[in-house]
Design brief:
The chain is mainly alpha-helical and about 325 residues long. The structure holds tryptophan. The site of tryptophan has 14 residues, from strand 1, helix 8 and strand 4.
Length: about 325
């Protein structure tokens, strides 16, 4: 048996992953997988909360999210990938949890609130409102200890912890309270200066973007609006490009800030510098992507064997859950 602590984390397969995912979570996963037993969930059921009217998209999106993770360095030889909807125990556990989670606690969840605004929902679906409960089941069905995520996920981890405490006190202490783990850069602004990089906002750089695309996107990124001429002194604190230097060019942050403040470096040169750093970082990611894209059978095999392994864990924990709740009717 694996004695290491267990990590569970993952993504909704709703499209390509971007640099926000990379610094917020993917990089962390790749670094931690050596020291923790790592499970990566491809949360297709959660993707359905917003994409229920086009489920046929999932087939491709599930593969893409798996490849994005592997390209970013999550090694399928070390970490275990699995598909949420193929673990029925997660759905079962979600149902049991939903008996004691209040509707109000979900309506006040800050991430749910932001998403309602972002999607412009007037009324909300039951499944959407309840997805944090389902996410608690994602995390706890395998007794995960740690959950590396971006900061927008913190309310969900907090709810998971509450659910575990409640379950353990109501029935029997069989579940493990998970801890969130936040990365150094837990939120990346969009190229347009919007507070968050997001698919629906069209302000992102994708892990699958080629070098030229990255260059063009950075060229168009928002900078200090008061710095018009090369000789104008800039303010890095309000510059989007500087925030990217902080995230991806840690070593030169001081120089970049100084060069901006005293007009020693122009915005074009500053952007070109960032572009080079990003492309150097993304080159190995692109190579790994190409490797897996050329081997669809291998990707499928990774997902199938990972899911089968995780299913075994889920069955075992669900047996304990039923026993704790005294609904293990026939022994
Ligand atoms: N909510 C996460 C996101 O939007 C995806 C997710 C689903 C997840 N289940 C999870 C993350 C469990 C961590 C743990 O990216």
């Amino acid at each position: 048996m694996d004695k290491r602590k267990r990590i569970l984390t993952g993504d909704r397969p709703t499209g390509k992953l971007h640099l926000g995912h990379y610094v917020g979570s993917l990089q962390n996963r790749a670094a931690l997988q050596k020291d923790y037993e790592t499970f990566i969930i491809i949360a297709d059921v959660q993707a359905l909360t917003t994409n229920f009217d086009r489920p046929e998209k999932l087939k491709q999106d599930v593969i893409n999210v798996a490849i994005d993770n592997m390209a970013a360095g999550v090694d399928p030889e070390i970490s275990t990938f699995f598909i949420q909807s193929l673990i029925p125990e997660i759905a079962e556990l979600t149902t049991f949890y939903s008996m004691f989670v209040t509707v109000n606690s979900l309506r006040h969840n800050p991430t749910i609130k932001t998403e309602i605004q972002q999607y412009g929902y007037k009324d909300i679906m039951y499944g959407f409102l309840g997805y944090p409960v389902s996410q608690a089941a994602d995390i706890t069905f395998c007794k995960a200890d740690l959950v590396p995520v971006g900061e927008d996920q913190l309310p969900h981890i907090e709810l998971s912890r509450k659910i575990v405490r409640r379950f353990n006190e109501l029935y029997k202490p069989v579940l493990v309270e998970p801890e969130a783990m936040i990365s150094r850069v837990s939120r990346l602004v969009g190229l347009d200066g919007n507070s968050k990089m997001g698919k629906s906002l069209n302000n992102g750089i994708y892990l699958s973007d080629d070098g030229e695309t990255v260059k063009q996107k950075i060229r168009g990124a928002v900078t200090d609006p008061n710095r018009i001429k090369l000789t104008d002194k800039g303010n890095p604190d309000i510059c989007t490009v500087f925030k990217y230097h902080q995230a991806f060019n840690e070593g030169e942050v001081q120089n970049v800030a100084e060069g901006c403040r005293n007009a020693g470096i122009g915005c074009s040169a500053c952007k070109a510098n960032l572009t080079n750093k990003l492309n150097a970082m993304l080159e190995p990611v692109r190579e790994k992507r190409a490797y897996y894209e050329e081997r669809p059978d291998k990707v499928q095999e990774i997902l199938m064997t990972g899911t089968a392994k995780v299913r075994g864990v889920a069955k075992e924990v669900m047996r304990e859950v039923r026993e704790a709740m005294s609904i293990d009717y026939f022994g």
